[in-house]
């Protein structure tokens, strides 16, 4: 049986072969611990980690020493929110987030709320974006942190990061940006952002490694340490560094930096072509249409179509659903709920990637049109 066409790159990406090649020596030949400062094995590992900091720093326009490697974006986000809240609670115990954030953000905020912090969760409009007026009015004298995504993982819409950061700083509030879905797809620059989280497996690196970037130009930033032990990561995050994966993150960042502009154009062209074909043939709502979106992401709702029946009819495609139980949690997508999408109809998230071809997209659009046409026709007959 032929494997289905992979169109779920916002969930994870395959590790690029060049990244695998960069990682392999650090499982064997260069197996040293970067904390071992007395011999060449440790020196080689330490140099490799330093190179990865430089590579990621170049991709996001951040100084290498601002980068703290973690076990992924979820850890980075937990550390940023909890560590910042605990370190700054004397200034206030109010945190602002957006309703469409990843569960790492919403879950961390919910945990703080149970400990006595006040959390404001901002609603979004139909395209998944926050009203600038609502954003600014939510920031109070006791607000210490605001959290928002660079780009949404389900519908792909982006926030105006620079302007939102400026508004927050004008009010004296620090900013955490979850850039997990944006890095490698659109230009991302640290700029005046205080804290930024990312994960390697979203841009063709390995799973289990990410980073929290702490802006060294924001001199008053203070975070409590969340993982205690040795003095790794400049005393901020204990634990022996995962050198092979960190090398992989760096190699993935370097390749993303080299190919970003051309690849972004290519993916946008494929996405737009897919959406055009589907719109011409069946009844569909493109979630997020009209807003700035990730070039690779298309979130499609098909009115009246049952999710299970649709998935059953497109076995040749590996895609994500945005309907109830899509994550195994038994609940509808909180992002689709937030934008007012029709939760009773089937929604597909199609996320293209580096290895997606024009032929893949043609096959996908044909399969979706064929399946949806039959299901919508059957619905009309009843």
How is this structure best described in words?
The chain has 382 residues and is of the alpha/beta class. The chain folds into two domains: 5-12 and 260-381, Alpha-Beta Complex (Aspartate Aminotransferase, domain 1); 17-255, Type I PLP-dependent aspartate aminotransferase-like (Major domain) (Aspartate Aminotransferase, domain 2, 3-Layer(aba) Sandwich), CATH 3.40.640.10. The protein contains eleven helices and 13 strands. The strands form three sheets. It has a seven-stranded mixed β-sheet with strand order 2-8-7-6-5-3-4, with helices on both faces. The chain has a four-stranded antiparallel β-sheet with strand order 9-10-13-12. A two-stranded parallel sheet has the order 1-11. Helix 3 runs parallel beside helix 4. The longest helix has 39 residues, at 243-281. It starts with a strand and ends with a helix.
Pattern of helices and strands: EHHEHEHEHEHEEEHHEEHEEHEH
What is the approximate shape?
globular
Q: Figure out the total of helices.
A: 11
CA-CA gap between termini: 35 Å
Q: What is the C-alpha radius of gyration, as a whole number of Å?
A: 22 Å
Structural class category: alpha/beta
Strand numbers in spatial order across the main sheet: 2-8-7-6-5-3-4
CATH fold annotation of the largest domain: Aspartate Aminotransferase, domain 2
CATH superfamily of the largest domain: Type I PLP-dependent aspartate aminotransferase-like (Major domain)
**Quaternary assembly:** single chain
Low-confidence stretches: 323-327
Helix content bin: 25-40%
Q: In the CATH classification, which architecture of the largest domain applies? A: 3-Layer(aba) Sandwich
What does the largest sheet look like? 7 strands, mixed
**Share of β-strand residues:** 5-15%
Beta-strand segment tally:
13
CATH C-level of the largest domain: Alpha Beta
Mean pLDDT: 95
Question: How many structural domains in the coordinates?
Answer: 2
């Amino acid at each position: 049986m032929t494997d289905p066409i992979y169109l779920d790159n916002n969930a994870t990406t395959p590790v690029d072969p060049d990244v695998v090649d960069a990682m392999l020596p650090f499982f064997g030949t260069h197996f040293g611990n970067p904390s071992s400062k007395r011999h060449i094995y440790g020196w080689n590992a330490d140099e490799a980690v330093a190179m990865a900091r430089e590579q990621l720093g170049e991709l996001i326009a951040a100084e290498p020493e601002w980068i703290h490697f973690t076990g992924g974006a979820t850890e980075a986000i937990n550390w940023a929110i909890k560590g910042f809240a605990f370190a700054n609670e004397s200034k206030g115990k109010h945190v602002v987030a957006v309703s469409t954030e990843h569960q790492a953000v919403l879950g961390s905020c919910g945990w703080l709320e149970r400990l006595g912090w006040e959390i404001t969760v901002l609603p979004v409009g139909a395209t998944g974006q926050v009203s600038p007026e609502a954003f600014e009015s939510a920031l109070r004298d006791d607000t210490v942190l605001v959290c928002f995504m660079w780009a949404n993982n389900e519908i792909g819409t982006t926030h105006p990061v620079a302007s939102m950061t400026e508004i927050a700083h004008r009010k004296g509030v620090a900013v955490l940006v979850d850039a997990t879905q944006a890095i490698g797809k659109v230009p991302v620059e640290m700029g005046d952002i205080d804290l930024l989280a990312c994960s390697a497996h979203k841009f063709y690196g390995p799973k289990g490694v990410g980073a929290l970037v702490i802006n060294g130009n924001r001199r008053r930033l203070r975070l409590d340490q969340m993982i205690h032990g040795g003095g790794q990561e400049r005393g901020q995050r204990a634990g022996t560094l995962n050198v092979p994966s960190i090398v992989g993150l760096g190699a993935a960042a370097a390749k993303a930096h080299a190919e970003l502009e051309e690849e972004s154009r290519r993916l946008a062209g494929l996405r737009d072509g897919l959406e055009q074909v589907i719109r011409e043939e069946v009844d569909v709502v493109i979630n997020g249409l009209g807003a700035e979106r990730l070039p690779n992401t298309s979130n499609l709702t098909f009115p009246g179509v049952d999710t299970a029946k649709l998935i059953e009819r497109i076995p040749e495609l590996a895609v994500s659903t945005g309907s109830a139980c899509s994550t195994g949690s038994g609940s509808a997508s909180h992002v689709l709920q937030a934008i007012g999408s029709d939760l009773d109809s089937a929604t597909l998230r199609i996320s293209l990637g580096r290895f997606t071809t024009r032929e893949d997209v043609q096959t996908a659009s044909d399969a979706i049109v064929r399946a949806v046409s039959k299901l919508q026709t059957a619905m009309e007959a009843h």
